[in-house]
Amino acid sequence: MTDQLGARAQRLERVRGRMGELGVDALLLSHGADLPWLTGYRAMPLERLTLLVLPRDGEAVLIVPALEAPRVPDTAGMVALCPWSETEDPIALAAGLLGPARHAVYGISDRAWAQSLLALQASLPGAQFEAASRVTSPLRAVKDSSEIAALRAAARAADSVAVVLQSGEIPLAGRSEAQVSDALSMGLLAAGHRRVNFAIVGSGPNGASPHHEPGERVIEPGDTVVCDFGGEYVLHDDVGYCSDITRTVAVGEPGAQVRDTYAVLLAAQQAAVDAVRPGVTAEHVDAVARAVITEAGLGEYFIHRTGHGIGIEEHEDPYVVAGNDTALVVGHAFSIEPGIYFPGRFGMRLEDIVVVGEDGAIPLNTVDHSLVVI
């Protein structure tokens, strides 16, 4: 646990440095990924307030319901614990820690409940509130070595499930999408995930809906099947980090159009991976993938961004999309997942998680990228 404590101490230092650069007096962190990233504690989504009061200068204090206090991991003195009883007002406790609010600038969790924000605004008149992500997101997007190790372990566990899928050990033909989704979910848990975040199975025409909810449609010979699955994996008793992988498989020999389309998809995904290196922008990687598909005359069927950052949350910065001119740096972690979707007919997607290294992309998912026939 010493390594995790050291990493969190460095994160607190970096956060306070950025608060100083941006003129933010304190962060008020409740629900969302910032709290566990800094403290190792993931708050339950209760109506009772949990709030980390993190001033730019001074002691960090975690206000937590007394009944939840036993769940808070040791922070080695980096964060003071302030349990509150059922008869206390946690908003008043927070306001008391902050002092005079006039002209103060506070960053509050993007995922904080409106009820909490409204109560804090009422108790701290004259203060300015803004999204805490302005401070934390650029820092969280660049993973440290412990986070990369956790993402790598999560990816390997997800890969092991993809191998089982591609080997045909999970029967497809004659089974419903929901049954296959359940099998993928059980595989993730058996491979060590703490929980399953999603297990999308879109067969035949349903594969043209990128976020299709697996249903009772029975998979038939001739179908292409998009399987996109991932969950939360815990390494060394630390906070969970996410996996996310997509592989498209064919049930029986696919037709020429499916084969040709998949060849374009594979080329687009590989070109995007090859384009990753420090200094290029996130939107450049998106443009590279999109150009391959567009040049093949299929641009209108690529209907979403090329990728998203990943870490404690399955979707976070940096987003690989047109308009994001963020320059990639060593430690950025994100998906590369172009897709091609023909409404009412079929769809396909190919996704890996990569980390930016000194010399380019380091893929964390390495299972077969071809259109495997089951």
Task: Describe it.
The protein is α+β, with helices and mostly antiparallel strands and 374 residues long. It has two domains: 2-138, Creatine Amidinohydrolase, Chain A, domain 1 (3-Layer(aba) Sandwich), CATH 3.40.350; 142-373, Creatinase/methionine aminopeptidase superfamily (Creatine Amidinohydrolase, Alpha-Beta Complex). It is 34% helix and 24% strand. It has nine helices and 18 strands. The protein has helices at residues 2-22, 34-39, 90-98, 114-123, 133-141, 145-167, 177-190, 256-275, 282-295; strands at 26-29, 51-55, 60-65, 79-84, 105-108, 128-131, 193-203, 224-233, 241-242, 245-250, 307-309, 316-320, 333-336, 339-342, 346-349, 352-357, 360-363, 372-373. The strands form five sheets. A six-stranded mixed β-sheet has the order 4-3-2-1-5-6. Strands 7, 8, 9, 10 and 18 form a five-stranded mixed β-sheet that branches. Helix 4 (114-123) links the parallel strand 5 (105-108) and strand 6. Helix 8 (256-275) runs antiparallel to helix 9. The protein starts with a helix and ends with a strand.
